[in-house]
Design goal:
The complex is a heterodimer. By secondary structure, chain A is an all-beta fold. Chain A has no helices and nine strands. The chains are: A mainly beta, B mainly beta. Chains A and B meet through strand 3 and strand 4 of A and strand 4, strand 5, strand 9 and strand 10 of B.
Chain lengths: 113, 116
């Protein structure tokens, strides 16, 4: 399974943009890039995913490098509620065993008022 | 409201006393899965199910059993719990059984289990 590398922690100020990086230098052509986050005392929740093109949804944007070896999750205006552990996960479309999510340590994001 | 529910949310038990943690989803999802989360080890998959009566081992299945008799329910059974099964457990479900793009998984709120 291709691995991802994320910083252990990051800090942000409320209402400012946050850029969460993820390196996946061994990504294969069939790997999708998924982001999940886990708020304190809750289960993980899906944020966004992409393959090659940048993606936007109501929660965040995902910017994918041209060589796909890295990606960045962008929260456009951080709120206190965005304080969580953010996980960058690769999911192979050839996976026919359900799509097990392999969680690393993630990035713990703290948001200051 | 689309959701995954787990019961109980908290449980303290003693070594060897059989227990079941229930998981139910109301989204008609084919795929369901159990994870455990431990400090420093992250979330690891215990068992998964691709559909009714179809279950398979994940990465850490020892000491656990599951069943999938109905589409909506996927209970986790600890026949003889031991202290090393003290952990935070999450159930998850998703539509379809493929990886790749179709991997938006919905997680339950978690069950914190302590085995004394």
């Amino acid at each position: 399974d291709a691995k991802t590398t994320q910083p252990n922690s990051m800090e942000s100020n409320e209402e400012e943009p946050v850029h969460l990086p993820c390196n996946h230098s061994t990504i294969s052509g069939t790997d999708y890039i998924h982001w999940y986050r886990q708020l304190p005392s809750q289960g993980p929740e899906y944020v966004i995913h992409g393959l090659t093109s940048n993606v936007n949804n109501r929660m965040a944007s995902l910017a994918i490098a041209e060589d796909r070896k890295s990606s960045t999750l962008i929260l456009h205006r951080a709120t206190l509620r965005d304080a969580a552990v953010y996980y960058c996960i690769l999911s192979d479309r050839r996976d026919n065993q359900g799509g097990k999510l392999i969680f690393g340590q993630g990035t713990e994001l703290s948001v200051k008022p | 409201e689309a959701q995954v529910t787990q019961n109980p949310r908290y449980l303290i038990t003693v070594t060897g006393k059989k227990l079941t943690v229930t998981c139910s989803q109301n989204m008609n999802h084919e795929y369901m899965s159990w994870y455990r989360q431990d400090p420093g080890l992250g979330l690891r998959q215990i068992y998964y199910s691709m559909n009714v009566e179809v279950t398979d081992k994940g990465d850490v299945p020892e000491g656990y059993k599951v069943s999938r008799k109905e589409k909506r329910n996927f209970p986790l059974i600890l026949e003889s719990p031991s202290p090393n099964q003290t952990s935070l457990y999450f159930c998850a479900s998703k539509r379809g059984t493929a990886g790749g793009a179709y991997n938006e998984q919905f997680f339950g709120p978690g069950t914190r289990l302590t085995v004394l």
